[in-house]
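dude i think i finally got it to work??
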Amino acid sequence: EVLTFAADAGMAVSFQGAGSHQSIGYPAPADLVMTTRRLDRIVDWQPEDLTVVVEAGVRVADLEATVAQRGQTTVLPEVPGDATVGGVVACGLSGYRRLRYGPTRDRVLEVSLATGYGAVVRGGGRVVKNVTGYDLPRLATGSLGTFGLIGNVCLKLWPVGGVAATVRGVGPEWRDAFRPLAVLETDGVVTVYVAGIREHVDAQVSDLGGTATEGLRWPDPVRGPVRLSLRVPPRHTEAAVAHVVDWNDTSYRAQHGVGEIEIGTTAVLDRLVELRNWAETQRGALVVIEASDELLAEFDPWGTPPQSLEIQRRLKAAFDPAGVCNRGRLPGGL
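look at this
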């Protein structure tokens, strides 16, 4: 009803869960802000089927604590803060364990969406293997709310079993790790996360060297006045690290095998332009996660728009013909 009213009145609407990721993309000035704070129910949890349906305003940390009671995990970001499920899905955020289990978009089975023209549409299905209907879950994942307000999300869960270990200070041996959960390099120090049966984990720890700790000790997010996400094909991860390792007042965390490098820095504009130019020549991107208005006035948060921009415009027109939902937030001002 709110979106129908907004479309008829020509008003711009923005969506907000916990507000953890409002700095991503172009600013989206709004006449109305819709919050999912009270959409906070776990609608349907089927532990035997490894699925859970939640409203968009459920906090990731609360959901993870709930499903952990049955030895399961959502495999969403491991240090989510106050982030909500709807916000994580809308921003397309994945946890560090995506190296083994894949990105968030692979686990979003079903989504309900209140579109910009006021209709509620649903796509996907509440089963792990589903090939029916329009793939709305993948479309909504990473859309930053530009197609409508995410209401409910069905997630595929993953069982957690055996034991796990965090091995810090690993040398080149990390390249030989067998199916690790994650391989993170933080400011030159490599940490490998392994899990499985005791014999397997013990053998991995022995082969990797370094300092092992029982359990998974996930790091806090990288901080800095300018926060960036450098995204390249996984084979270029080490080359990407080489571009930032000598920057002053800079911290980074590289996800080996994934191709994403989180950067917190005070780097000047020239260095950011140089890094973006290199990333785009490697079929990658440099995305601004957070920065001052002064920097954003000179440095585009997205970089070169994708070749699929025209297709995205057509999708935007189909789901939000009046252009009321998070107007202008995506690349190309979509």
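The longest strand covers residues 148-156.
im so relieved honestly
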